[in-house]
Amino acid sequence: MSLYVRRGAGSPTDAARWSRRRDVMTNLRSVIGRAYPRVIGSTREPSWVLFEVLLPFLTTSAFVFVYRALDAPTEYVGFVVLGGAMSAFWLNVMWLMAAQLWWEKDNGNLELYFTAPIDLMSILFGMAVGGLLATCFRAVVVLSIGTALYGVTFSVEQWGLLLVVFFLTLSSLYGLGMVLASLFLLWGREAWHLTQLMQEPVYFVSGLNFPVGRLGFVGALAISTIPLAVGLDALRQLAFAGGVASFGTPSPEVEALVLVAMTAIFLFAARFFLRTIERLARREGRLTARGQ
């Protein structure tokens, strides 16, 4: 050891630095390894792409026709089209993130994650990256078709802030997905039912097809707790500047700060719950809080 220290090649500091670098590279490889199947898998079933784009677009079209029948302001059509595009990300969070660890347990893969020298957050992050690419494609298709078919006109004055809000919305949504993935695994067999239960209520309180400010107190509560509500409201205000996109909700700048806070809170909570899962698995020999 003294020989290495004198040469400056094997000091404890160098060993610690090399160990950190190795851990970082290992986790980066795990991110790529978990993202790859989702990217490739999305191209092996073209029919899934059709159903995932067409069926949600039918719901979007129904609300467009309702607003036109009611002679609502033209911005409402844009609200619906933008909401239909953003719904793709919520579905990805719920179906491909929240219940993922539970599905991996059923498939017998979860034990491999615990024994591998990687962080569980890198596994979930890789799943998020892989699912995000396919989800972005679906969102762009819905937005493009809706804009061309229904004549939606956007009026964007702050492109930079709009892009920042969009990426903050995604980061907070996938942070929430990591929290739900760990919670669903801790709660046990109810993950599937919780996934189905949370889908439509969140659509409603997030104002997916109408301005969330119309909900009053419920809308304010949604903006303070659900990233989709905050991000969608801010995107509407920025995409339809000077219109009727805001109904007593905070400004896009304030909502961007809310998204930053949500991202930090969700990532911290995900870290805590994932550490709890690792403790239960490695020390107590169980994966859920009730031993299921």
Describe the 3D structure.
This protein has 292 residues and is mostly helical. The protein has one domain (2-283). 79% of the residues lie in helices and 0% in strands. It has helices at residues 2-7, 12-44, 46-69, 75-98, 100-107, 110-115, 120-150, 159-187, 191-205, 217-225, 227-239, 252-283. The longest helix has 33 residues, at 12-44. It is globular and about 70 Å long. The N and C termini lie far apart (48 Å). 38% of the residues are buried. The model is unreliable at 1-9 (pLDDT under 50).
Q: How are the SSEs placed, and which strands pair?
A:
Elements lengths: L1 H6 L4 H33 L1 H24 L5 H24 L1 H8 L2 H6 L4 H31 L8 H29 L3 H15 L11 H9 L1 H13 L12 H32 L9
Quick structural gist:
With 292 residues, the protein is mostly helical.
Sheet of most strands: none
Instruction: Extract low-pLDDT stretches.
Output: 1-9
Mean pLDDT: 78
Indicate how many domains the architecture comprises: 1
Relative helix content: over 70%
Return the structural class.
Answer: mainly alpha
Overall geometry comes to globular
SS field, number of helical segments: 12
Alpha carbon gyration radius: 22 Å
Write the H/E string, N to C.
HHHHHHHHHHHH
First-to-last CA distance: 48 Å
Number of DSSP strand runs: 0
Which range does the strand content fall in?
under 5%
